[in-house]
Fold this sequence. Notes:
- With about 350 residues, the chain is an alpha+beta fold.
- It contains 9 helices and 15 strands.
- Strands 1, 2, 3, 4, 5, 12, 13, 14 and 15 form a 9-stranded mixed β-sheet that branches.
- Helix 1 (about 25-45) runs antiparallel to helix 2 (about 55-70).
Amino acid sequence: MNTPTDSTHGTDVLAVKDEGQENAVDRVLVLEMVRVTEAAAVAAAQLIGRGDEKAADAAAVEAMRRAFDNLYMDGTVVIGEGERDEAPMLYIGEKVGGAPGKGPKIDIALDPLEGTTITAKAGPNSLAVLAAAEEGCLLNAPDVYMDKLAVGPGLPADIIDLAKSATENVKAVAAAKDKDPSDINVCVLDRPRHASLIAELRALGCGVYLIGDGDVAGVIAVTDQDTGIDMYMGQGGAPEGVLAAAALRCVGGQFNGRLVFRNDDEKARARKWGITDLDRIYKLEDLAGGDCIFAATGVTDGSLLAGVKKRKKSTGATIMTTESVVMRASSGTVRWIRGEHRISPHKAG
């Protein structure tokens, strides 16, 4: 598998907003985390369109683990690839980082390849994603479903409420934006379980933007006016909900999430990770608190980030280019980073 010899070779910072002072912990959380998502994205990109979801995911996972080993931190995966006996790589509770017992204690939520099916089929919006925060600040969400409701920044507090119907939420957001409900655009995962939700939204005249996969990018889309997306609704993975909440903490917005349990085994798994109120509606800071960080690198081209590209230089070297974003909640810093990664000649394809 092709891997970068230097995951920050030729890095160019394209845009920076609201710079804040940084210390050693910040360097780990803000700047170095991009190296991790870049490594996972470059590894997964070798399998774009090859039809093998498991191989693409495994490549991203292994590359992400190796990159973590280079960071000075004492990290713990609180959202990962399942529990120890179910996933051999980056499982919940796994220790990561190059300074166990010495470096800053950091909780990590990650999805080495958000959109495995997308990658296998060469579709849009697959990402390598992670969130990091001080110990105890990320919800240790089990790998179950979550009802999600999100809007972008600039709206009155508590404008959305999962306890209310989709119609009530759309009307509330429309009124706050001085729009008619028929002018509201809602992003929804294209799944059979959302048939009634889609019908309800279309009865209001809403524009319904259906996506095949990648609901982290779908939630983040509400923060960018250029996407035209006003709201995100629907049911998806709980781990992805925490990752999306971390991004919204950094750039603004509101999020409601409620865990969905299909059987007693899933309820038992939630209790194992300390969740006692199984009907709780979580808000943004319940899911991602403290000075959290969100980092993502595009694998395939998407609305948020460009995907990995491979080219040959005149010297014969193989170069992989990546586009990433890294955000920090406490300062509102948003960095857009383009990286060039030199691939070892004996590994280049």
